[in-house]
Amino acid sequence: MKKSIALLLxxxxxxxxxxxxxxxxxxxxxxxxxxxxxxxEEVAExxxxxxxxxxxxxxxxxxxxxxxxxxxxxxxxxxxLSTYPDRFMQEQxxxxxxxxxxxxxxxxKAIVMVQAVPGAAAAVGRVxxxxxxxxxxxxxxxxxxxxxxxxxxxxxxTNDLARGAQIAQQAKDMGAETLVHYSFxxxxxxxxxxxxxxxxxxxxxxxxxxxxxxxAPDPTGxxxxxxxxxxxxxxxxxxxAEYGTNTAFFGTNCSMMEPMIRQTVETGAxxxxxxxxxPYHALPAxxxxxxxxxxxxDLDYILSEIEAKCEEAEMAGRVATWSVPVNMMYVEAGVxxxxxxxxxxxxxxxxxxxxxxxxxxxxxxxxVLENYGDYDNYFLYLGAPIVF
Length: 388
Known about the structure:
The chain has 388 residues and is α/β, with parallel strands linked by helices.
């Protein structure tokens, strides 16, 4: 009996020592030659951080929303998704609350927001109060550049100043005699958008284009997005009746694009580019293009389908965009830049060389960035037009 008890005590001690020990882990095995890399989902699970992505809803910014979903599909649980409300002007507290909810997770080490609508600065300011370690990447800011520059670590924006002259020249090259500019007072209070309008008008008049400004209902107002879209549906034919088919149309809000394209094609007018240039932005829906699942994200397929629809409608040479889906690029590039920063692959928070490399990779060709003013964290991008 004594021998049995002694043996039992010895076994207990051995088990206890084994449980408390910290054995050296086995060395990682080198992957076999030709072995496939781990899928992105597995890589995401092994990281010690998460990245929050905030976009508009489908009705206000479907491109950004879908791009965020794509990032979630690629990187799995590493990506935390959130949206800002459609009526973001009236519901800025909701934007703040939603961003704070992401920042309250200690594993969230970066937040990418596209579009950075009004309320973004306040939301980032609140986040900074509790988490000054989070990298903030903002795309398409809707607030004063000199204000938002102090909140985002990296800011990406289409070069709206250069776009003013580009849009006017593009319309002229496509045969336009008149250029109609749709907007509303809230957008014209944005410094960049107002300056672009002024430069567009100046360029149009210098090359012989009549420039027409037209106020449309604000989609964040009482009538909402449906009110804005109904106005565009009714006003584009009125303008064509007044100025003729060689009239080009441009609007400053995403919700305007689908009805504007549809009515431009219906009336035989000219459509030089969207507010947020991209083959995916409103063109497929307006032209009745159904995209099969296996072609989702296939840029060449989308371009060829748009081309075919334009020829079918006898609109060849009268519809254009940029070949790169710009807002989708900002979402993807923002996430990839955040990963590079968190993996220690950037020189500080705002590394122009790394951002340029990532954006070029996403765009499928070399791009050039310019700084806005003297801000080394504020980057402007200008793409090239493509005419169908």
